[in-house]
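RECORD TYPE: inverse folding
INPUT: structure tokens
STRUCTURE:
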């Protein structure tokens, strides 16, 4: 792990430092918005592409070359650990993760044995080893948070209502906690192996947890997500905890043991500062829809995000959620350049006002 980095802005900002240039990366920066991705992506399941370390490393590097972002995020998926232990889950193009036989009962826990990363996901480790040799910026490892992964296992696919998930949680809390405990263990093993292989920061994606109330989050989710951050604390790398629609959960998310909270675009970063009270650095939160509206609007809105970010010394610019596949890479590039050129000055001005 003796990586020599040209820029460690992301890890410094994620540790709470005010950096001389505002670092930026985008959730889903790799993928279908890039013509060079569409050109190399294998036909069929994304999981086959993820199992090819050379190709996955190349896809991880594509947005780094094109945009000059300050971090690479490993090309993989949140369902890789459950897939690798043989739960029976796939990623269907245009849809997302699908489990043919969803999680229903105690019996189904047997399909979630412990992960042995060196054996089960050796291709992920190999991809990271290739990447850290190539990269002079931090590599972000990641995992799905227990709730968000559980929602795919229980629903059997993407959902708008999360009815089956909420129903299992409320009708059989004992089984729910067992499932969440298993999923936290999978995330911990996977993240440990990613960091040991050379990832220098990680993000826990709890994309869909915003459907829960604060009380239910506290009882049913927080102990398990927090266990992930606590188990990784000994490895001493900064960490980002992200979810969508989390305004009412933000105080709990900030107390999870993460160093940085990823904020979505439904609240202002100034509001996020008031809630998190300087306990963590912030990341976010340009509405990804702005990228579809052309350079002028995207840059205008970027300025607003930077102004609102001034309250937080540690700050990483990002979108509020992933890049839409229809996004124009030139608009994303313009946003990166603007954040690098003017971000620090805009924030400084706002801080001294
Ligand atoms: O650039 C990056 O962000 C790195 C790679 C990455 C992927 N998935 C690759 C991928 C990351 C970080 C993820 C995480 C992920 N996967 C999340 C959390 C992030 C979020 O968006 O909230 C979730 C919920 C998933 C589950 C998942 N996998 C979905 C909903 C989809 C989209 C289905 C579709 O086709 O629209 C996937 C497939 C997937 N994972 C793609 C990519 C680039 C789609 C493209 C493809 O199939 O080639």
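DESIGNED SEQUENCE:
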């Amino acid at each position: 792990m003796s990586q020599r980095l040209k820029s460690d802005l992301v890890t410094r900002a994620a540790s709470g430092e005010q950096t001389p240039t505002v670092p930026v990366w985008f959730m889903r920066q790799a993928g279908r918005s890039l013509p060079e991705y569409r050109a190399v992506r294998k036909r069929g399941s994304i999981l086959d592409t993820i199992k090819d370390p050379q190709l996955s490393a190349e896809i991880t590097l594509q947005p780094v070359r094109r945009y000059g972002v300050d971090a690479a995020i490993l090309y993989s998926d949140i369902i890789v650990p459950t897939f690798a232990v043989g739960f029976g889950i796939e990623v269907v193009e245009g849809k997302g993760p699908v489990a043919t036989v969803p999680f229903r009962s105690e019996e189904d826990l047997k399909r979630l044995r412990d992960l042995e990363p060196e054996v089960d996901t050796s291709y992920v480790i190999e991809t990271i080893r290739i990447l850290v040799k190539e990269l002079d910026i931090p590599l972000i490892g990641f995992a799905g948070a227990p709730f968000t992964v559980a929602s795919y296992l229980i629903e059997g696919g993407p959902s708008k209502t999360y009815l089956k998930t909420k129903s299992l949680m409320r009708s059989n809390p004992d089984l729910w906690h067992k499932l969440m405990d298993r999923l936290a263990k999978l995330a911990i093993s996977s993240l440990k192996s990613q960091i040991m292989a050379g990832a220098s920061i990680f993000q826990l994606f709890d994309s869909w947890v915003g459907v829960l109330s604060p009380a239910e989050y506290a009882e049913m989710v927080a102990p398990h997500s927090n266990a992930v951050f606590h188990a990784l604390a000994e490895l001493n790398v900064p960490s980002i905890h992200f979810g969508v629609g989390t305004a009412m959960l933000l105080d709990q998310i900030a107390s999870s043991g993460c160093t940085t909270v990823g904020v979505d675009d439904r609240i202002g970063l100034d509001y996020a500062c008031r809630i998190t009270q300087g306990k963590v650095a912030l990341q976010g939160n340009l509405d990804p829809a702005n990228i579809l509206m052309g350079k002028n609007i995207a840059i205008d809105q970027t300025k607003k995000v930077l102004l609102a970010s001034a309250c937080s010394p540690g700050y990483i610019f990002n979108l509020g959620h992933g890049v839409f596949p229809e996004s124009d890479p030139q608009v994303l590039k313009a946003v990166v350049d603007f954040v690098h050129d003017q971000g620090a000055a805009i924030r400084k001005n706002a801080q001294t006002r």
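NOTES: The chain is about 50% helix and 10% strand.
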